[in-house]
Specification:
By secondary structure, the chain is α/β, with parallel strands linked by helices. The protein has two domains: 2-26 and 163-296 and 327-353, Rossmann fold, CATH 3.40.50; 30-160 and 297-322, Rossmann fold (3-Layer(aba) Sandwich). 43% of the residues lie in helices and 20% in strands. The chain is built from 14 helices and 13 strands. The N and C termini lie far apart (43 Å).
Length: 354
């Protein structure tokens, strides 16, 4: 069964997992937009005063609320509070596009000045945000823009992480854990999703170009994080020489950890993306997690709020704004959590750090 599953995931390998950059990878936004540093978006004291006098309101429509999106939301809320913009609604679609459409319709009954949203399904974005048509509400996207939407006409800006930097950092973290040599297993997100596609490919490019003594010997696509354990189990069974594994985000990384425990493989190092309490605990206790790469989620929210607020004054923001990312390891877990989520790590992680 495991062999059949492994063959299936290899056969299903997406376009994004087989293509490569000739040159150093770049983060690319909708329509090929070049990345602009988020820190370039600032609000002058004069503009802040104008915004405060405008009696503006804002709302959030989330794909899902969890540690990362809560941090983005808090960054935006704090900036809105500074600018005198009142938050009137926040919804959680739990990755259900139909539910998000209903959420947006409910929000639009309040006629907010701004809407910040991460589409649950970019492919059905026109339907999701149809309630905005003909309204004066300004829309700022997080991570992905809805398909068919045009910058400057349908939305103000897209704010996200620098996917190329994340790929670079994950390769660096794995190389450090493996002393720059060894066999690697690569589990990628097998879906048309620019955020994960670009950082997955950036990891591959950096590993190949910068660490010639490290070799990817197995690739497997993943659409459902719940299948990561089976995929990792099959991969390691067919390639017992693997000493390191890349996973596209923290949830599937936990499935990989489970497979490693089942197989008694405490010699395999794992890197992943985003912060997660169970993964961090494994890392702090000397387990298989070698490092987590985390973007500056709180700053994504601050930047989205600023871009949206400036649009209320008729000022344009760049189409594709990106924040940086850092490797969070055993020796900087507290600082890493603050830089990404703007709060301390969970108590369990802090205790383990002692």
């Amino acid at each position: 069964m495991m062999k059949l599953l492994y063959s299936a995931v290899l056969a299903a390998a997406a376009f994004f997992a087989t293509q490569a950059w000739a040159d150093a990878p770049e983060s690319i936004g909708p329509g090929g937009a070049k990345a602009t540093p988020a820190a370039s978006v600032t609000i002058s004291a004069e503009d802040a005063a104008k915004i405060k006098s405008g009696n503006y309101t804002a709302a959030f429509s989330w794909h899902e609320l969890y540690d990362w999106s809560n941090a983005v939301s808090q960054g935006a809320k704090d900036e809105f509070a500074r600018l005198g913009i009142k938050v009137v609604a926040e919804t959680n679609a739990s990755f259900d596009a139909s539910r998000q459409k209903a959420d947006v319709e409910t929000i639009m009954a309040l006629k907010p000045s701004l809407l910040i949203s991460l589409p649950a399904d970019p492919a059905v974005g026109k339907a999701t945000y149809s309630a905005l048509q003909g309204s004066k509400t300004k829309l700022v996207f997080i991570d992905n823009a809805a398909d068919g939407f045009t910058y400057g006409h349908d939305y103000v800006s897209l704010v996200t992480s620098d996917r190329a930097i994340i790929g670079q950092k994950t390769a660096e973290a794995l190389a450090k854990a493996m002393n720059g040599k060894g066999k690697v297993g690569y589990i990628f997100h097998d879906a048309d999703f620019p955020v994960t596609n670009q950082r997955d490919q950036a990891f591959l490019w950096n590993l190949k170009e910068k660490y010639p003594d490290m070799e990817v010997v197995a690739k497997a696509g993943m659409t459902d994080p719940a299948k990561a354990e089976e995929i990792a189990h099959a991969m390691l069974t067919q390639h017992p020489e693997i000493q390191g594994i890349y996973t596209p985000w923290a949830e599937p990384a936990l499935g990989v950890l489970s497979a490693l425990k089942q197989l008694g493989r405490n010699d395999v190092r794992v890197v992943t993306i985003d912060l997660n309490e169970p993964a961090a605990l494994d890392m702090m206790k000397g387990g298989s997690i070698a490092g987590m790469v985390a973007d500056q989620a709180y700053d994504i929210g601050v930047t989205a709020a600023r871009a949206g607020a400036l649009s209320l004054l008729g000022k344009e923001a760049p189409p594709f704004l990106v924040v940086g990312a850092d490797i969070v390891a055993k020796d900087n877990v507290a600082q890493g959590w603050q830089a990404s989520l703007h709060r301390d790590p969970p108590k369990s992680v802090l205790e383990a750090a002692k």
